[in-house]
Amino acid sequence: MQVESDFTKDNTPQVSNDFRQYIFKLAEDIVLYSGSFEKKKKNLRARCEREIVNYNSLEYNLTLFFELVEDYSKSNDQVLYRFLKLQAGFCFIEVTDFVGLQIASAGQANNGSQSSDKYKNKNLESTSSNQQSGIVGGHLFGLD
Amino acid sequence: MTETAIMKHTSYAAFHVLWTKPYLANSKSFSMNDAEILTMVLSALMWQKYNGSIKLYTDNRGYEFIIEHGLLSLWDKGIDTEVLEKNTYPIDPEIFWAAGKLMALENQTTPCVMLDTDLIVVHSIHEQLEQADITALHAEILEPDVYLHPSLLKQPLNFKFPDCYNWTVSPSNTAFLFIRDESFKKFYLNESKQFMFNNSEKPKELVSQMVFAEQRMLSICANLIGIPVTYLISDPFTLSNLDVIHLWGFKSLLRENRKIQNLFVKQLLNTLGKELSTNAFYLHFLESHFHNQPKHLQPVSDILLQSTTF
User: Is the ipTM of this complex over 0.95?
Assistant: First the structure.
């Protein structure tokens, strides 16, 4: 018996294409060209007011996104990459634009090769995965 | 799906296990982070919503933890502390860190489902279970550095593996395990106990003995008896999996990265949480755990304000 549930439905508020483009350019400048987020906040706030978007929430989400980009650059963890894509969505960055940020996925970088290194750790709950941080069914709660 | 439609099926009795002894062997305290607790809560509630009843086996320290976090009434079939607390089996909890699950399974009457606290079944799986005698989560790859050659496995003194064991069968991931038949359960547990008892020579990795005793042994025993093991999912990462979320190795990332932990919590609340929007326990849990959060959890608070009525 299969049950149809709608819990994976996207609830992200709708914004204009113009606003999305603005956010993408902002992210692009910071991710690709090491721009300063601080210097862009004033303008971001004004754009949010015009778009009727919660500035505090978006600022939090963008800050988190940039932090995760940094974390990912250090770890190349494939699951972290999936969360990064998810977080991009909370920042109104569409999947196609996300690709434009040129953040290579670990899967692309190492062909998704499975590692059994985690078995060498004293991880009490690493019962059986042969993935460093593998998660089963991530797509069921919104991970691409 | 109405409640009536769900209830016309058999109710499958499941159990969770929270055995703190392995943690306390290395640490003075036992803890679970917010993401792990939320996953355990969703695991129990979603099981009750779609598949049946659920009970918790834990020990005294685990019970204290459950009380501290207001989770006493999460399991509709209650909490047992006797089985794990009073167990005197000569099993090293550091080597056999999941042996508590097998002790609980021994006490549980069949048919039953052993459900890891980091695994959520998001839909009814009655149809799969109705047709099976043994169902595990998925088959495991026989990786030689995890599933060691028998000659490399640390064993008890004077122990010898039976010649009839088939070492080529694929181990089964037992984060989910359904067993219908009591005699098979006893056979499997007896074989496993013979390997675990007084097996105290530590391996290099603290994994090989446990995964043998629990996961490979299950498949070997099923093969010996001639019962096929069926699986909930064909492989761990298939997109055709519509039923199961299992944190698996992701827990290590969750523990290392608080930002990911918060994002994961937010996403679970935003998705699966909707399924439980009328569940009184769930709403109370949200209020007590996430209502007064520090600023770094602000988006979670935002969600709570939007999705709950308290």
Answer: no
